[in-house]
Structure prediction request, 363 residues.
Amino acid sequence: MNDKNPWALLGVDSDADDQQIRKAYRKLALRYHPDKNKNDPEAAARFQDIARAYESIKTVQLREQTSARFGVHGPSAPRPDAYSTAQARAQAFPDLDINAPASASDPGREPAARPAPASASSLGPTQVGHVLGLSFQQAFNGYQTTLDVIGEGLCDACGGSGAAPGYKPRTCASCQGSGRHSAGRIVNQCQDCQGRGFIITHPCSHCDHGRKRHTHPIDVKIPPGVYSGWTTVEQRPGVVLTISVEVEDSPIFRRKTSDPADLIIDVPISYAEAVVGASIHIPTPNQSISLKVPPGTKTGKPFRIAGQGMPIPGSSERGNLYARVEIVTPDNPSHRYKQLVSKLHELDDPQIRADLFQPRAEI
Prediction:
């Protein structure tokens, strides 16, 4: 992002405030997020550029530091003079000769010198998003894995200067290190150095302007009880990894929308068990337990079983399990079954539906 104007990348004016910059970043990040553009390396690269752009101008202080490199001026970015800008360049590149113009006849060869690294604080961390799919049981037990994340950082070969080992950047002769040209009140980016204020006559063959892709293996530990939409952020040098979890549905349990630590299970019982009661066994996510069905249980009745739901992330406690019983009748009852039920039917209350025919007030 050293050579890319962050204001232009985010599509905001040079006088945009924190809120406008944040709004533009969120809109673009949502559009180019890797999760929405799978197998699209251009979108992934654009997403990383947008993240770095936001990190470089998201506050007034950062905009003041960044404006000098791109010739951008606004209420939050004081207009620097050429000398102060060149001095800022010298701090970022200690081996940069701020007085000597670059030319083909004077490539700046320093046989015994090696460029000092650019300021690491000027390089924002790579923002990476990842969706981690888990089975229901993995979400219950917790999960550990290692993700190989590709991010950018300082090049090891050139130390971040962008110049080949043994060479150093030279101050742009056209703009004298300011990165811009002024004509009255109009300020334009210098085209010779692309606003950087310096020219690299012998580029490093291992990187792109001092930045290089690195693979960062990141150990990820997901706690028990997570649910779809649960997120965590892992930070490592040069990389900020945001992990979003998607949990597969269980064929047996449902999670309550209001509290994902609570589970619901539908338990079939027979007509006889509902009438006379029974002691049955039902599953939980990690064991089998006994459930007492009292006589006269109606279909749809939920039984609350405390502490047998999902773990609560970050806690030693668990949610509750709600067993909802459902009376099941046989699809093809035998002749004997029908005979016995007919006998029971003789004992049914003949007024069981009497209330259905009572006058009711208009709604």
